[in-house]
Design goal:
single chain; about 150 residues; mainly beta; 13-stranded mixed β-sheet; 3-stranded parallel β-sheet; about 5% helix
Length: about 150
């Protein structure tokens, strides 16, 4: 079975939890995969090519995340938004994407100023420097990502 997301596949709500796309379902994402709260877990085959992945930050313990089974081929656009007036404290970190291993990086990012995005062996983490609090919500858009870090 194949699920082709040409629109927006969104996880929202006041309770986190996990939305699981089971093994045996291939998830192709040329659209937008949007996790505003809780986790979206893709356990079968998937493709992020030509698509976008978006995350919501609601509080230190309430944010969207994505779990990818096996070796993740990261590509496409990544973005995040702050919800309900939440602004993280300087130094806050959010593990947005987990995987068994990864190849590549997201091609472009849409983040407020003051965000860094680090790729590790089994997870990618967003770090908040606090800079955006002082200068407002200006966005950095569409730049080529270096191998290890987006700033």
């Amino acid at each position: 079975m194949v699920f082709n997301n040409y629109g927006t596949f969104r996880k929202t709500g006041s309770i986190g939890g996990s939305t699981v796309v089971q093994p045996g379902v291939a998830f192709n994402n040329p659209g937008t995969l949007d996790s505003q709260t809780g986790n979206i877990s893709l356990q079968g085959a998937y493709s992020l090519a030509k698509g976008a992945v978006k995350f919501g930050l609601n509080s230190p313990g309430n944010f969207g995340s994505l779990s990818l089974s096996g070796a993740a081929a990261l590509t496409g656009t990544i973005s995040m938004n702050l919800n309900n007036g939440y602004v993280p404290a300087a130094g806050s970190q959010f593990q947005l994407v987990t995987y068994g291993s990864h190849s590549g990086t997201f091609n472009s990012a849409i983040f407020p100023v003051g965000i860094s995005f680090t790729y590790a062996k089994t997870a990618a983490t967003l770090s908040w420097s606090g800079l955006a609090r002082a200068i407002g919500q200006r966005a950095i858009t569409h730049f080529t990502a270096p191998k290890r870090r987006l700033s």
